[in-house]
Amino acid sequence: MHACPSSPTHQKKITYHLNYQTVRENRQRLDCRRIVLTHMSADMLSRRDEADMECADDGLVIVL
Question: What is the reported pTM?
Answer without folding.
Answer: 0.74
